[in-house]
Amino acid sequence: MVRLETMSEAERVITQRMAQICPSFETWPCVNGPPLSQRRVAIITTAGLHTRNDRPFQLVQDDYYRVIPGDVRANDLVMSHLSAGMDRTGYQRDWNVVFPLDRLRELVKEGIIGSVADFHYSYNSSRAKEDSTDPIREVAGFLKKDKVDAVLLFPS
Amino acid sequence: MGVLGHFIEEEGLPTAGISLIRMHTEIIRPPRALWVPFELGRPLGPPDNAAFQRRVLLALLRMFEAPDGPRLEDFPEDEPETDAITVLACPVDFSQTTVEDEETDQLKVAFRREIAAMRPWYDVAVARRQRTTVGVSGIGLEGLGDFIYAFIGGTEPDNPRDDIPLAYTLKFAVEDLQSYYIEGVTAQPGQEGAPSKVLTDWFWGETVASKVLLALKKVCEASKDEVMSQMGAHFLVPMEVVRRQESGTDSHQDG
């Protein structure tokens, strides 16, 4: 469980240290949209996912995100997140743990959401920082072209 | 993650995100965040539990119906307990071979035997799940162990990839190796639902592979190649495992 009281001392220290460098903002944009049943939903993950034939993530300049096609299958997706400590055991058994595309497809069939986007996006979390807003805004532009009006963000 | 939400919302798109560390989300204040009390690495909760994942997803989606933000809500359920399995019981144990008390080649033999012993269960896992997460490195299963072990033997192998440096190929080979073991061991009888801590304790406490990777870390740290050295220092072995090694406590004692 990710509760401070259940973390090891080392994990708690790191979490508190990271809190000191979390950015805060002076404005809080909040955009509304149509009812859920009409929304087009896309996923953004920071788990370092990409398709099997795509380039693995590296800690190099200008390597920010990968595009995941909406018709991707579970066996098409791999993870090149660089963290050694991140727990991958859930993802190794079920991709929906980090990339719940099967669940979203079920919700479309039930009419709870309108549709699933043609493309989803993946970052290696170490690059998804406030010092690289251009690639984030770039992805927002592609999401708009895809007519997405509900973006789900899944951390790792 | 909350930072992404802030900037995407600034561009005019509604966002809602999972928060794994509430303290950080309270500072960033993204437009809509659902804090979940799950382990890092599994924002939707437990694997192979579609009903639970659906409840998390619906709770997140329903945040879009709120008229204003920023909003931070708590998901009301903990992950279901999987208390039936507290340790893994693998009938084949090659882990008594160590770098310290055996010839290095014997470690290599034990490593190869352990990899081979896991293969039938890995094959079961792939057939059952119709997928595998092995394959990031691009090195086939047959060559994976020898590729990794070559570094320990002092022979830096050729990089089989031309799109990433050798240090990255090695990193992803190490991840492929761990995926191979975890996918295989969770296909064995009665171990499908093993919690992540049990699995990682088993891998890093009881396998020959973990001894090889700990030795590999030292070799890489000593490399004159800066990328390789950094890879060895930070990205091959979890910090928690290193800490346990340095303090002389294994994963089980550290409970």
Structural summary, described in words:
The complex is a heterodimer of chains A (156) and B (255). Chain A is built from four helices and seven strands; from the N terminus they run H-E-E-E-E-H-H-E-E-H-E. Chain A has 156 residues and is of the alpha/beta class. Chain A has one domain. In chain B, helix 3 (50-61) links the parallel strand 2 (32-35) and strand 3. Helix content of chain B is 51%, strand content 5%. Chain B folds into two domains: 2-74, no CATH class; 104-247, no CATH class. Chain B is mainly alpha-helical.
Give the SSE string of chain B: HEHEHEHHHHHHH
The order of strands across the largest sheet of chain B is 1-2-3
Measured by DSSP, the beta-strand proportion of chain B falls in 5-15%
Structural class of chain A: alpha/beta
Main sheet specs of chain A: 5 strands, mixed
Helix content bin of chain B: 40-55%
The ordered H/E elements of chain A are: HEEEEHHEEHE
Give the tally of β-strands of chain B: 3
Low-confidence stretches of chain B: 251-255
Oligomer: heterodimer
> How many DSSP E strands of chain A?
7
Q: What fraction of residues of chain A sit in β-strands?
A: 15-25%
Total helical elements of chain A: 4
Short structural description:
The complex is a heterodimer of chains A (156) and B (255). Chain A is built from 4 helices and 7 strands; from the N terminus they run αββββααββαβ.
SSE layout and pairings?
The complex is a heterodimer of chains A (156) and B (255).
Chain A: H1 9-20, E1 40-45, E2 49-51, E3 65-69, E4 77-79, H2 89-93, H3 101-109, E5 115-116, E6 119-123, H4 133-145, E7 150-154
Parallel strand pairs in A: 1-5, 1-6, 1-7
Antiparallel strand pairs in A: 2-4, 3-6
Chain B: H1 2-10, E1 15-19, H2 22-28, E2 32-35, H3 50-61, E3 71-74, H4 104-129, H5 141-152, H6 166-185, H7 196-206, H8 208-221, H9 226-235, H10 239-247
Parallel strand pairs in B: 1-2, 2-3
